[in-house]
Amino acid sequence: MTDLSKLCIHSITTKPWGLREAAVKYRSAGIGGMSVWQDAAAAYSDGHRAAGSMLRDEGIEVVSYVRGGFFTTLNGAERIKAIDENKRIIDEAAEIGAPLVVLVCGATPGQSLFESRKQITEGIAASIEHAAAAGVKLGIEPLHPMYADSRSAVNTMSQAGAICDEVGYPNLGITADVFHIWWDDHLEEEIKKAGEKNQLFSFHICDWKNLPEDMLNDRGIMGEGVIDVSGIRRWVRDTGFSGYDEVEIFSNKYWAMDQDEYLDRIIKAYKELS
Q1: Fewest beta carbons within 10 Å, which of 7, 33, 194, 253?
Q2: Could you say which of 3.20.20.150, 3.40.50.720, 3.30.70.980, 1.20.1560.10 is the CATH number of the domain covering 7-271?
Q3: Average pLDDT, integer, range 110-124
Q4: What does the domain layout of the chain look like in residue ranges?
């Protein structure tokens, strides 16, 4: 992989850099896109619209806006607030020029995963027309089951696809992140199914390190762990998916090191993918 034009880096991957510095560094390396996290956008003092203009002026495509979701709660009034918050996030995405909002859907201790998935479906259904009117897609990101307690009751491509089918809007699809789904015995089949239904909206890559020190902030660079990133990537490409390969890494170790060296390591690892 020598062409970096379809490589996207999430702003949180190089968290110590602000948006402008990240854009300059990415573009000088030949990287084509950035997925912008809310905290990075909020820190840009001139606002979301100006942030999007700056990124495009630097030659960086805004690939997605991260993240919406967290629809579940034991309190009905809080669920209404969550829907309103997602509509606000959709508006921010439209302002920055992001075509997609990634959804981390939520889960609530004290209620079943089935009830949480019901609330997620209802929350997305209540937000989807607002997204369509704004010209924004929503991508459900299944999270690894270790996060099913409080971060997401959607843990497989199959569960995400079922919600897409039930809501039934063309601007609702799936964000496939290898960190969360690599373990699934049915993954190849589910990726193919999502592609056939035009529901595969985005693709995130990193690696799962053997015996990670932290279950949230110790992700690896591709090739550093146990995920067959190249193999999963081939399944994704075989569907006709032509979007970006998005590097999303949370890592206390890598955030603490020189970010130029870190970016060089990411690029080297990406070029070694088959």
Answers
A1: 253
A2: 3.20.20.150
A3: 98
A4: 7-271
SS3 140: strand
Torsion over CA: 120, 125, 126, 130 (sign)? positive
The sign of the dihedral angle between the CA atoms of 58, 2, 194, 190 is negative
The bridge status of strand 172-177 relative to strand 245-247 is unpaired
Joined together, the tokens standing for residue 103 give 């959804």
What the block records as the tokens of 168 is 């039934």
pTM as predicted: 0.98
- Which residues are CB-contacts of 20 (< 8 A; sequence separation ≥ 6)? 44, 54, 58
**Each residue of 59-116: pLDDT tens digit?**
999 999 999 999 999 999 999 999 999 999 999 999 999 999 999 999 999 999 999 9
pLDDT (tens digit per residue) in 235-253: 999 999 999 999 999 999 9
